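Deadline looming. Please check this record:
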Amino acid sequence: GTGGPDYVFSLTPAISGNLTAKVGFEANGTSVCANNTCDDRCWDAVLSARATCSSPGSELACANATDAGETITFPVTAGVPVAVIVDGVGPGWYATGQFELRLQLSP
């Protein structure tokens, strides 16, 4: 990873389509950091997806734009596993924290 601990989620979609993954957002879509920069969920995350977890060359999508939340969308195929990875930037206190990974699969 890029600094903080890596959290890897292996997903096998039941249908083909586009998978959207988000971290750093409330359920209503507002950035966690916009509401409260002292919130334990407000940290500098990196969000990525890979076809093969251990192969960086199989990356399907990556977001490392801001500390205001990250979103990626990528195509998936029914029955084919993908890895969604939440990581942190740098070695500091801001490189890890609590998070809610939000997923939406659209056919």
Q: What stands out?
A: Residues 49 and 84 are 4 Å apart (CA to CA). The radius of gyration is 14 Å. Residues 32-35 form the longest helix (4 residues). The mean pLDDT is 89.
